[in-house]
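Q: Given only this backbone (158 positions), what sequence would you predict?
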């Protein structure tokens, strides 16, 4: 059985519109993202206070179909293995299903035995199912601007 964190949702927008929204990472995840988020091979840096630092590289970039980020480095101070995400892949797959577009998000390697699994699942649920979905469907996401958004982030910020 596939234990990786995954979530899927459908939208009325086209695969191309969903693809454009995914690559507007500052529009749905964090305004503090550094680097190009829409080019194959680009290296991107994310940080949220001292709670999360992450560097990833865009390793697949197939317009209207797929984006893959490979996590080069990761740091969490709140778990024993502070590098739990390092070497994992964050995958966005887009498919046309009838008159709808399906977006499937999978964090390959983010598995239940990871200490950060619950916190990270909460985070991805908020940012992908909430903010990215909103960016695709309304043109406006709810990225963090350096403040905690999820309940897990808020708890860890204390």
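A: Predicted residues:
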């Amino acid at each position: 059985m596939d234990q990786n964190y995954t979530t899927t949702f459908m939208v009325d927008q086209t695969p191309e519109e969903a693809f454009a929204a995914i690559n507007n990472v500052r529009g749905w995840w964090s305004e503090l993202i550094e680097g190009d988020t829409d080019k194959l091979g680009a290296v991107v840096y994310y940080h949220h206070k001292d709670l999360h630092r992450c560097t990833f590289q865009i390793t697949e970039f197939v317009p209207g179909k797929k984006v893959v980020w490979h996590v080069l480095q990761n740091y969490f101070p709140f778990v024993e293995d502070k590098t739990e995400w390092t070497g994992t892949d964050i995958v966005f797959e887009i498919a046309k299903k009838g008159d709808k577009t399906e977006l499937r998000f999978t964090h390959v390697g983010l598995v239940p035995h990871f200490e950060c699994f619950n916190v990270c699942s909460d985070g991805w649920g908020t940012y992908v199912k909430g903010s990215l979905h909103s960016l695709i469907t309304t043109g406006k996401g709810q990225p963090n601007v350096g403040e905690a958004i999820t309940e897990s982030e808020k708890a860890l910020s204390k």
